[in-house]
Specification:
With 168 residues, this protein is mostly beta strands. It folds into two domains: 85 residues; 64 residues, no CATH class. Helix content is 3%, strand content 38%. The strands form three sheets. The protein has a five-stranded mixed β-sheet. Strands 1, 2, 4 and 7 form a four-stranded antiparallel β-sheet that branches. It is globular.
Length: 168
């Protein structure tokens, strides 16, 4: 499964029926993605979102993706919404699926991991959620770069190749 992830601002608050607009990742259009397997996550809150339960809906429009929040419990201020979009079969090596995306609240939490990962993970902050130090991060299994704990990270107790890197 190949995915693309898009993010809202870190200070979203939503009530039932309110929407967020997301730009398509560079070089993609509505035809690049499928509803099946695409997921939404709210970070900075304990509210879990399920498209199957009707908590939200996605509309892949010509120029944007529209996320409509349908859950009766409002999303409180300082919430970040992340959409993990599944590429349509045959596009970007994709093919459907529904794996839960990997997320980390902080760099310290990420560095506690004992193994690498596939795909793009979401880091929600450097020292704390929504502190401005978050963003997409991926595992480069071949890398032996020196960790600077800004762009390149080495997991605690890790030896040999493999580094977590910010996606720029």
């Amino acid at each position: 499964m190949t995915i693309a992830t898009v993010y809202s601002a870190a200070d979203v608050a939503l009530r039932t029926g309110e929407t967020l607009d997301f730009a398509y990742p560079a070089g993609t259009t509505a035809d690049s993605f499928v509803q099946e397997g695409s997921k939404a996550f709210a970070r900075g809150t304990q509210v879990l979102l399920s498209q199957d339960a009707g908590d939200y809906s996605l509309a892949f429009q010509e120029s944007k993706i529209v996320f409509t929040y349908n859950k009766s419990t409002p999303l409180p201020p300082n919430t970040m919404v992340a959409l993990q979009l599944t590429y349509a079969s045959g596009l970007d090596g994709g093919g459907g699926g529904s794996a839960t995306p990997l997320t980390f609240d902080t760099v310290a939490q990420m560095k506690q991991r004992t193994e690498g990962w596939e795909g793009i993970a979401q880091l929600f902050g450097y020292n704390g959620v929504n502190d401005g130090g978050g963003g997409p991060i991926y595992w480069d299994a071949e890398s032996e770069e020196e960790a600077d704990d800004g762009l390149v990270f080495m997991l605690n107790n890790w030896t040999g190749p493999g580094r977590a890197k910010r996606l720029l």
